[in-house]
Amino acid sequence: MSDTPISRRALLEQGVTVLTATAAVASLVQAQHAGMHMPEPAAPPLTPTQPSRSRRSKVRLSPGQPQRDYTPVITPNGATLPFRVVDRVKVFHLSAGVIQHEFAPGLKATCWGYNGLTPGPTIEAVEGDRVRIYVTNQLPEPTSVHWHGLFVPSGMDGVSGVSQAPIPPGETFMYEFDLDQYGTYMYHPHYDEMTQQALGMMGMFVIHQRGARRRPDKDFVMLSSEWKIALGTARPDPNEMTDFNVLTFNSKAFPGTAPLVIQRGDDVRIRFGNLSAMSHHPIHVHGLAWRVVGTDGGQVERTAQRPESTTLVPVGTTRTVEFSADVSGDWSMHCHMTHHTMTQMGHSGVNLNGVDETKIDAATASLLPQYMTMGQTGMGDHGAMKMPVPRNSIPMQGAPGPKGHVDMGGMFTVLKVRDRVTGQTDPGWYADPPGTVARAATSDELKRDGIVV
Hints:
Blueprint (H helix, E strand, L loop, with lengths): L7 H26 L50 E3 L2 E16 L2 E8 L8 E4 L3 E8 L8 E3 L23 E7 L4 E6 L4 H6 L4 E6 L9 E10 L18 E4 L10 E4 L3 E8 L6 E5 L4 E6 L2 E2 L7 E2 L1 E4 L3 E8 L4 E7 L22 H8 L33 E3 L2 E3 L5 E7 L24 H6 L5
Parallel strand pairs: 2-5, 4-9, 10-13, 12-23
Antiparallel strand pairs: 1-2, 2-3, 5-7, 6-8, 8-9, 10-11, 13-19, 14-18, 14-20, 15-16, 15-17, 15-19, 20-23, 21-22
C-alpha cells in the first residue's frame, strides 16, 4: 500500500540520495570554476514504480498465485476469470457471445458480453507472468480484443485490420504475451467498437505488483458504463450519443448494485475503470477521503498524490484509489453527475415544474380515471409512489432505505463499513448510535438558539 508511513530504512536511503546529489552538484560547481567542460547531466532514471521496457526480465518467473502472491480482487456483481498453468504459462479463455443481463430488478436486456457476463470476468495476474488468452467468438459478427493500457507486442494489440485480422464468428484466436508492468487496466473489442462496447463487451485486467511489501485488506474493481434502453424495450441502443438513461457500476444500476462490504480499520483499494461511450464520471465518496495512487499509465508518485473525496474518471481511463476505512457507517459512493444517479424514467419526462395541473387532470380523468400529472412540484418522491410503469422498465430512481425512500439510482452504491464482517455478505443497514442521526428540531431547541422560522 502506498499510504504507509515512511520507514527508517527509507529515510536513510533518501538521506544517502540527498548526500550523493549534493556531492555531484559541488563537483559540477568546482569544475565550472576551473573552466572544465562538463557533459550534460543524464536524464533521471525511471522510478521503480515505472519499469522501463528495456529492463524487462528475460527469465520466466514462477506464475503468481492468489493469496500467496496477491490479495485477489473483488468484482461486486461480477466474477474473476479462472486460469490454469501450462508449462509456467497462465492460460485463460474468454468467450464472446449474446447474453441476457439484469441491470436492476425489473429491467433485463439482451446484451453482448464475455463468458455470459457484462462486464466480462476480471482477468487477474501478477507482474512477470506470461499469459495465454484464448478468445472464442460466438457473436453474429467478427470481433477482437484490445488489452487497454498493457505493453504487448504490436501483433497482440487487438486492433482489427491494423495489428490482427478480426476473429470470425465461430473461430477462436490466441493471444500470448508477458506482463512486464503492474496496475489497473481494461479489455474491450477494437472491431465495431460503437456497437460491441455499447452492448456490454468490456472487462477489467488487474496486474498485481510482484513482491509488494504490503497488500490491501480489500481490493475492489468498479467498471463504469452507460446505456440507452428505451422504456419497454429489450435491447440497448448502440447508436445513442447523448441521452443515456441507464448508468451503471459493473453493469448494474442501483438498487441492483451490490454494496462494498468493509471491516473497520481495513486498508482498502478501489480500482475504477470507465468504458462509457461518451461520459466522464466524477466518482464521489461520503464520509472519508482517498488518494489517487495509479492510472492506466502507471503508478502515481507519493509526492504527487493528494487527498480528495471526488475523483474524475475520464472515458477510457482507470483510476486507483486507496484509503483506510476508519469510521463505521453506510457511506454512499456515486457519480456526481446528477443525471447519472437516475434511471430510465428520469430521462423521458416533460418538465412540469410549477405547472397548475388541475385542468389537465380533469380533462384526462374521463379517459384514464387513475391518471395523475407528475413533476409539477419536483420529482423526488416519484420513486416511492409505486405507480405502474411500462413492462421491462424501472422507475426514475430509488429504492427503500432504512430511514425512507432512497431517491437515487443509476451509478450509485454503498460502502458498508462495520466492526466485523464476513466476506462480502451484506450486513444490512447501519445502526446509528443514539444522538448521531439528523432529526426534526423541537420548538424548545429553536427558541434556545434564536432560530426564527
